[in-house]
Amino acid sequence: MASRTSAISLTRTMVALRRRPVGRLSLTRLRPIPARMDDSFSLGEPAKRRARPVKTAKHAAPRARRSPAGGLERTRYILGGIGLVVAAFLVWGFMHFMSSAGNQAANGEAAEIGAAQDVQAQTTGEQAIQTVEGLATTGSFGQITPEAMKRDEPTYSYTAGPSTGPNNVSVAGTADGVGIAVLSTSGHCLYAHVSASGVTYGTGTTCTGVVALKASAPAWPNPA
Predict the structure, then answer these.
(1) Residue (of 170, 174, 144) closest to 158 by Cα position
(2) Given phi > 0 = left and psi -120 to 50 = alpha, else beta, which region is 212?
(3) Alpha carbons 115 and 135: distance in angstroms, whole number
């Protein structure tokens, strides 16, 4: 029954289609569905998503690691440079100290030598003072000349001009007194003025008996 009903229904449908105008569409153009194909509708395979390229993070170039040996070597160089600077400073300080000490020693030695030379000139002057005082007891100060002093004390030389050394005495006699001058090797000139009132002393650069007549100090300065 079912098969017959289906056939009848199909026949009726086809008759109806033939009677109904279909415009441009004709049944001759209708083609049966191929056996291999079915009436199911397929949209095909789903499109495959294109894989996005993985962006690699840009990393900074790795820093070169300093090896412990290189750092130690650099530290040694730095310490060595500092040591050289300190050593140079110490050497300079030592040399400066030695130079200062040497200058002080040289100045001290020069002062000692100058003092010894002044002592020698003072010895000569003191002997000349005694000679003048001895001659004054038998005559006047005006009669005391270099020649008279040479006869009385021949150990030294005497002159009316400038003294030329610690053993040479410049003599200038007046009625009021006698001036004597002795040049020390240090360059100092020692003065003495012998008069009836006593002896006065002095120092200067012009080493003559005439200048020594103006001496007024109570004593020669002590040698340094």
Answers:
(1) 170
(2) alpha
(3) 30
> Strands across the sheet with 168-173, in order?
157-159, 168-173, 177-183, 189-195, 198-204
pTM comes to 0.51
Using pLDDT thresholds of 50, 70 and 90, give the confidence band for residue 151.
very high
**Measuring CA to CA, which residue among 211, 209, 215, 221 is closest to residue 132?**
209
Beta strands 157-159 and 168-173 are parallel
pLDDT(170) > 80? yes
| Residue corresponding to tokens 């002057």 | 125
Is the separation of the CB atoms in 183 and 203 below 8 Å?
A: no
Mean pLDDT of 182-191: 94
Q: Are 95 and 204 in contact (CB under 8 A)?
A: no
Q: How many CA atoms lie within 13 A of 167 on its CB side?
A: 4
Q: What is the pLDDT of residues 26-63, one digit of tens each?
A: 444 555 555 555 555 454 555 556 666 656 555 555 56
* Distance (Å, whole) CA 20 – CA 179: 180
Instruction: State yes or no: pLDDT of 2 exceeds 50.
Output: no
